[in-house]
Amino acid sequence: MLKKISLLSGSLLCSFFSAQEFTQYKNGLIYSENAMNKLGKVVDSLNLKYKTCDLTKVFYSQLHTIGYAVKMDTGNVSEAKKDMDLNIPIEDFIRKYPEAVIEKDLLIIKSKEKDDERNDIIRIREIPVNGYYATSIGFNYTKELYNGPSKNKWAYNYWEKSSNSDEQIYGFFFPENFKSIPLAPKYSRQIIYSECLIDPSVSKFKEDAKSERFGVSFPKGDLKKLSKQEKEKLLDELRSIELIGNCSQDSAPRMQGVYMALLSAETANWEVFLKSHLDIVNDRFERVSDSGYARERRGTYIKELESLNINVPDLLFGITFRIENPVNNHYFGDVSRLGKAVSESKDVELFLSQLLSMISDKNLDDYNRIAAYFFYLNCNYSIKSKRERKINSMKLIEAIKRLPKYLTDQIKIESIQV
User: Fold this and answer.
1) Using CB atoms within 10 A of its CB, is residue 247 exposed (0-12), middle (13-18) or buried (19+)?
2) Which residue has better confidence, 402 or 55?
């Protein structure tokens, strides 16, 4: 058995961050040639499996609508709350409460989520096109409330006055019902491909895994020298604890992620491997705090996926779409991180072409069109060539003109990198 070293996730690690995060093998990847060969055989069988999948399955966009956001912490807040309960028309509300801060023509989405206690809640939030603070509210889930009509209704969170804060209310007014529309078959097939490769029935961590911030041990030495049983035992141990980072530069959660990916690659445990590697690509790790400069310095490792016989564009687009009817435990990607990863892809032009097509697609829902816009922005920002960035920016500006007017009007063209 290999010796173990203890990587303390804490203040000492917050001052350390390596330019080269993970050791590379002779093949230029963070996984050995032997491990890649094992994974390649699994991918080949999954690609065959995909051909037998039901490619006619239809996916639907996440519930969305256009509406108003209202914030009020001065004036007669209690009276405003009563009026919201009576579904006062928005025009009357604006006249009656001039002190309220009101934004109109916002893209608003509704989703079923879990709170910190793992209870089902309804989350309603605006999608800020220009990256400003977004209003978000949540309340207990009921099927009737989630699926019921919302036209000309209010939804809000209210806080009474306390010793620490003033009375306040945050909410939304919806002129129309939320809607969910079918995605085109070409998009649904990409989602099906991602679900074929990413087994939703197997989680990266065990169901009873504990969260930990200190003292998780990682193996020291050459993993290839371990027996398969020893590798499986180590992987089982790592899947039992989810390490929480203490600051932006705390590398321990990502170290745990790469060790899990390494061990699952060596044992051809595809289900855990792909989730572990995608978490590295998406930088999906729990941290107490995280800052932009630290995120910029983390690698994405898309090359490892491209070195397998994977249709990487279909895989990454499949986890990009925001949908209402995913399978349980569907893997959703982060468009900001995926944008950076795609900027390093051998298929970057193919990615950018589809993103422009999605932004311009009038049959695609507004939420996924805006997600494609942010995906494109993040990719272009990370491209090294200034000339290429300028050309891409000009193409993006043309695509933006095809968005619904209420979205186009919110995008500041001058802020797009040219």
Assistant:
1) middle
2) 402
